[in-house]
């Protein structure tokens, strides 16, 4: 980068300028801001920041962002597009936006938001940047020659984006941090670990398990690397063993994602009676309230919010022994771990919980306690606010959050 980073966060202090510092979230999925970051945005706003959101305008989500009191800046930033002209247009759009509104901190969420936003933050000399890594993503999970070349390119872009002199890279688990350090993409002294995003513990509250036919739920976008195939195969195996449980996939079809499960296949499984596909459900607390077991056989995660929400609802969980998933539970205390990509161990763990209501209750109660003490908003949000304060030159939280 020929243009030096702007590195004078003191100019953003309210006491210097007489106005609140502007915190800009840049997100490539507006629904993700509402589900995962809005509580942090509200807390920052209550603590004296002006908070604005830059994201694509998709459906009613942008209107909901405005309804919650945030200025919305529409972007053309796509999650999976690769047209060079469109990507350059998205970069230029960020340049124009950053120069126009002059944020004090940009909080970048999502791979493209981090890569493009980090580069533009350096180019336009934004005082501070926070990069939120919520997992490795498809680029680091895929295999093959083309995937290796793409991975090499992304690593170089990460190095450039993360090179902002006044920045922090926030990971949700130790495994992802170690991977980024090993690849030379980030410096350990500029990194933090904050587990999860904080959830509404009143909304995700424990409920009594429903009676009748048991329900096993996999809540995720419909991606192969979420373990969808293993879940479907485990359901089919348990049916041959006489299980009467219902097995349900809950989540978007994720069209455009290279790892997306074809929608025709989801319908075919449903028509065959192997599983049910409910699509996206806006009220996940209701879904967990109807479930007896929650399952996420993912290949890798940052800190899966659905496991935290399920535990908060007092539900026993089954997940894979991989980074992120194993960080969200306490093995054999709040949930069960199984090997990644293996159907029979997954089926055995599900059957174990279906056959033992007392164990489900024990794991569910412990899960709720774990969320309250380790993963609650009162733990996560002050940690994030403290990072904002450090980036602005203050080592104390701009507010008390409890």
Task: Quickly name the level 1 CATH class of the largest domain.
Answer: Alpha Beta
Low-pLDDT parts are 13-17, 394-402
Structural class by sheet pairing and helices: alpha/beta
Global mean pLDDT:
88
N-to-C order of helices and strands: HEHEHEHEHEHHEHEEHEHEHEHEHEHHH
Percent range for β-strand residues: 15-25%
Number of domains as seen in the coordinates: 2
Task: Give structural notes.
The structure is a single chain. The chain has 402 residues and is an alpha/beta fold. The protein folds into 2 domains: 9-198 and 377-391, Rossmann fold, CATH 3.40.50.2000; 215-375, Rossmann fold, CATH 3.40.50. The chain has 16 helices and 13 strands. The chain has helices at 14-17, 30-46, 61-67, 84-101, 111-123, 138-141, 145-161, 174-182, 228-240, 263-272, 284-290, 305-312, 325-328, 343-354, 357-375, 377-391, and strands at 22-27, 50-55, 71-74, 105-109, 128-132, 167-171, 191-193, 215-219, 246-250, 276-279, 293-296, 316-320, 335-338. The radius of gyration is 21 Å and the shape is globular. Residues 13-17 and 394-402 have low confidence and may be disordered.
């Amino acid at each position: 980068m020929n243009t030096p980073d702007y590195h004078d966060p003191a100019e953003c202090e309210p006491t210097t300028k007489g106005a609140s510092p502007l915190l800009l979230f840049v997100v490539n999925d507006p629904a993700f801001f509402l589900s995962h970051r809005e509580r942090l945005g509200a807390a920052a706003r209550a603590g004296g920041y002006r908070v604005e959101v830059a994201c694509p305008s998709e459906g009613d989500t942008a209107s909901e962002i405005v309804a919650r009191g945030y200025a919305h800046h529409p972007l053309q930033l796509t999650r999976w597009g690769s047209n060079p002209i469109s990507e350059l247009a998205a970069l230029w759009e960020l340049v124009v936006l950053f120069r126009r509104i002059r944020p004090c901190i940009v909080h970048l969420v999502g791979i493209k938001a981090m890569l493009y936003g980090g580069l533009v933050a350096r180019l336009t000399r934004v005082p501070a940047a926070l990069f939120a890594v919520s997992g490795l993503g498809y680029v680091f999970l895929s295999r093959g020659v083309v995937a290796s070349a793409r991975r090499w390119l992304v690593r170089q872009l990460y190095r450039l984006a993360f090179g902002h002199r006044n920045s922090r890279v926030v990971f949700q688990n130790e495994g992802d941090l170690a991977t980024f350090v090993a690849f030379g993409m980030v410096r350990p002294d500029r990194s933090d670990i904050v587990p999860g995003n904080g959830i509404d513990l009143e909304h995700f509250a424990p409920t009594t398990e429903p009676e009748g036919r048991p329900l096993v739920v996999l809540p995720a976008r419909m991606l192969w690397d979420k373990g969808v195939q293993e879940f479907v195969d485990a359901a089919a195996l348990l049916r041959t063993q006489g299980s009467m449980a219902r097995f349900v996939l809950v989540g978007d079809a994720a069209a455009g994602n290279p790892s997306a499960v074809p929608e025709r296949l989801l319908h075919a499984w449903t028509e065959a009676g192997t599983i049910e596909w409910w699509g996206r459900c806006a009220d996940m607390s209701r879904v967990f309230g109807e479930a007896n077991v929650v399952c996420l056989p993912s290949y890798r995660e940052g800190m899966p919010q659905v496991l935290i929400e399920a535990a908060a609802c007092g539900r026993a969980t089954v997940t894979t022994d991989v980074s992120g998933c194993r960080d969200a539970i306490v093995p054999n205390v709040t949930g069960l771990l199984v090997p990644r990509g293996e159907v029979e161990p997954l089926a055995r763990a599900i059957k174990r919980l279906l056959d033992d209501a007392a164990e489900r209750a024990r794991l569910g109660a412990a899960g709720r306690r774990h969320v309250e003490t380790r993963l609650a908003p009162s733990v996560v949000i002050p940690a994030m606010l403290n990072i904002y304060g450090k980036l602005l030159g203050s080592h104390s939280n701009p507010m008390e959050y409890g």
